[in-house]
Amino acid sequence: MSARDLILGRLRATAITNKPELPDVTGWFATHRRHEDQDQRIARLRTALEAVHAEIHDTINADWPELLLQIAATKGLCKLVIGTETPHGAALEARQPTSLKLVRYEQSIEAWRDTLFDDVDAGLTMARSAIAETGSLVVWPTASEPRLMSLVPPINFVLLDVTTIHADLHTAMTVEGWKDAMPTNALLICGPSKTADIQQTLAYGAHGPRELVVLLCHPQGATA
């Protein structure tokens, strides 16, 4: 029997006489949560993201591809990576852009590492939701949109349906049922990558995208 087995055996054999009570997290949030409507949550999220130099654009669900292409042209982007067999990727491909090459993430990282790290200008991902309280975008990596899509390209375009903005993290976790099915890596993106490690000088893009461009997609007919 190994030392590890002996230690675990002693721990498991120890009776817990005074089991600590779990905090009433749900009850606490019920009395401390802000009661805001959708417009107020959008405004709070926007303020938090813009405070950390994220770029925010309003659009509607039918028009975001044209907006993205306009932004890409303004920034002089040539190549953008999209997910494999995603509805938003297909919507962008359907526009058949001539000034922006769309590259699907359909190879293993080993097969195209150099291209992804050195030859892609931006990536497009869909946010699962957002958290107004902390100004966070919830990105849920899948096989179609791997985690590296939002971490490697210098510019990260994120689509966000404004109807999925939650007041706080607790609401997001409970409403979406995070405890039932979590990915290997769930991302909370609160702005472009930045660091001040060197001489306390703030620098963007040190550990990820230097620019975060958020497209707030409003329902059809809404005032964007």
Walk me through this protein's architecture.
- With about 220 residues, this protein is of the alpha/beta class.
- It has one domain: 3-Layer(aba) Sandwich (Rossmann fold).
- Helix content is about 30%, strand content about 20%.
- The protein is built from seven helices and twelve strands.
- The strands form three sheets. The protein has a six-stranded parallel sheet with strand order 1-12-7-4-2-3, with helices on both faces. It has a four-stranded mixed sheet with strand order 8-5-6-9. A two-stranded antiparallel ribbon has the order 10-11.
- A hairpin with a 7-residue loop joins strand 10 and strand 11.
- The longest helix has 14 residues.
- The protein is globular and about 70 Å long.
- The termini are far apart.
- The mean pLDDT is about 90.
The number of helical runs is: 7
Helix content: 25-40%
User: Could you tell me the mean pLDDT?
Assistant: 92
- Major β-sheet annotation: 6 strands, parallel
What's the CATH class, please? Alpha Beta
Provide the number of structural domains.
1
H/E element order = HHHEHEHEHEEEEEHEEEE
Percent of residues in beta strands:
15-25%
Low-confidence blocks of residues: none
**Strand order across the biggest sheet?**
1-12-7-4-2-3
The helix/strand class is: alpha/beta
CATH H-level superfamily: NagB/RpiA/CoA transferase-like
Q: What's the total count of β strands?
A: 12
| Global geometry | globular
Label the CATH architecture: 3-Layer(aba) Sandwich
CATH fold descriptor: Rossmann fold
Supply Rg.
21 Å
Termini Cα gap:
66 Å
